[in-house]
Every structure is written in C-alpha cells, then in structure tokens.
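Team,

Forwarding the record for the chain on the shared tracking sheet. I've put the sequence and predicted structure together so nobody has to dig through attachments.
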Amino acid sequence: MALVETRVAEGVRTITLNRPERRNAINADLQAALVAALGAFDADPEARVAVLTGADPAFCAGMDLRELGAGRLKFSDEPTYADAMRSCRKPVIGAINGPAVAGGFELALACDFLIASERAYFADTHARVGVLPGGGLTVLLAQAVGVRRARRLSLTGEYVDAERALRDGLVTEVVPHDRLLTRAEAVAATIASLEPDMVTGLRLAYERSLNLPADEALDAEAAASRRAGIPADTVRDVSDGLVTRGSAFVEGGGP
C-alpha cells in the first residue's frame, strides 16, 4: 500500500496521505513519500495545481508521536514536509476531510487555501504534548486568523470545527463530506486553466505582501505589472470585462 497516492487529471494532481490506520500521522516513511510527491508535482510541467487531502477519517493527526518519542524522526537529517511545501512553486489547495491537528494543522496552513468537509476540525495541540511547533504554525496561523486568535488557539489547544473555521477565515468554503474532492478539484481545474506564468506572478505578489513592508510590496507589485505589460495576444471579452488569456507576469518576465 502506497503511503501517498497520487492521480492526475487535466492539470490537477490529487495527493492523498494514505495511512488511515494512524489517522495519517506523519512518520519517517510518510514524510519521505510526501516530500517526493510534492517534488514530483513541482517538477511536472503538465501538473499545474495540486489538491492535498487525507484518506478518511482524518486529514492528518500530526507527527507520529511513537516515532518522535523513539527518536526515529530526525528533522535535521532529511527535508521535511514543511520544507517541501515552502519550496513548492505551484498552488496547493488543501481539501480538509477530517481532523487536522498539530503538525497536520501546520501542513494544512502551508496550502494556498483550504476547502473543508463538514467533518473537518483543526487544533494546535503542540503545548498539550510538550512539543514546540517547527513547521511554520506560529507564522502561518497568525497570517490566517490574526495573531491574537492564533495565540488563543495555541495556548488553549481548543478545537475549531469547520463552521467556526469558515467564520474565522481559516477555510474559504465548507461543503458536504461526499462532495469535498469534487469541489476542490473543480476549483483546482479553474486555476489550472489559467496561464501558468500569471498564476506564478500572483503567488509571488502575495508572498511579497507577507514578507515586505506595505510600501515596498506595493512598489514591487507595480514594477512587476509594468514589466509584464499587456501582451499583444490578450483576448478581452468586452461583454463581461474579463481577460480570458494572459501571459508572463513574473518578475523579469514580459510579453
């Protein structure tokens, strides 16, 4: 049985954590398989968007505490799932099918955005198990819900159900469980239909907005837009004002 299953359709690669008997808790083998799957997705020119989910009943229960306690998970030895998510140059949509806890919450937060099943819930239980977050949670959770709400979630370890996650802005949509993958893959297909350089440029712009002071991020966005210009082959649908075909929108790119 593969610890990570993948399938590709029309530019969308669905990546499924497949260790359901341990609620997809990340051990050394699953981590290596996930890093490899994300690397293969990033390197495949035909795969434009990924959907990341878990085999029911959970999305991911975090790091496998049995292996962590036994010293079999060595974070300094090999690339981690957090490294792979951070270096991925393409969009990853989280399809959260069940609990996303501790390191599983970090994995979800590393996605570009989240669509949740009605069965999903989230919790930062690092403090309860005596392990400090190391996969970006204190940064990514604060970006998602604000620093005060993030502090509360980390310090209390409270559980957030799907509807509250939607209200708090942690997820963008909640759907019936049996429609989760269909919906996530449909959204991914919409993104996959766009010009890849445009998608890359937009993602870079949002990264700048998070990593630079506001004035510098605004200047960088304006400069990138000027460099890209309006390509001669852009087709405009005048009836609804939508640009239906784009071109390069990356720093240093152009028509």
